[in-house]
Specification:
With 129 residues, this protein is an alpha+beta fold. It is built from 1 helix and 6 strands; from the N terminus they run H-E-E-E-E-E-E. It has a domain of 64 residues. The chain has a 6-stranded antiparallel β-sheet, with no helix packed on it.
């Protein structure tokens, strides 16, 4: 192949390469000299739980009567008993009673042949003067 023909064929290729655009990936480097953003203030604390000392009245919110509990081995039970000064056991296990009389317990599911919870609330003893 004559040299002038080689140069003639190479010229369009050189022009095409020179005119093509290339994409370059860029990244942004954070400016470490800038001060860090001020963190948001923490949310205000929750108000205290009000104290309730009424007559004992057990009310189970969950699980409801005759509800099928699908958990395999343990479950929550919660509701209220009317007084934050009373104590409560569920199937013999002490349940946490809050100042407003609400309670919550996490305990083993009752046996399948007797699927019931036995709740026993006791009023706080008062001291006699």
């Amino acid at each position: 192949m004559p040299s002038y023909l080689r140069h003639a064929l190479a010229l369009p290729l050189a022009v095409a390469v020179a005119c093509s655009t290339a994409t370059v990936a860029t990244t942004t480097v954070p400016d470490v000299s800038a001060p860090a953003a001020t963190p948001a203030p923490p949310p205000p604390p929750l108000p205290p739980i009000p104290e309730v000392d009424g007559p004992l009245a057990i009310r189970v919110v969950y699980p409801s009567a005759n509800q099928v509990v699908t958990s395999k081995d343990s479950n929550f039970i919660f509701g209220s008993i009317g007084s934050g000064k009373a104590s409560l056991t569920v199937n013999g296990v002490p349940a946490r009673v809050y100042p407003n009389g609400a309670f919550m317990a996490f305990l083993a599911n009752p046996p399948g042949d007797t699927p019931t919870y036995q709740l026993v609330a006791r009023a706080a003893r008062t001291r006699r003067a």
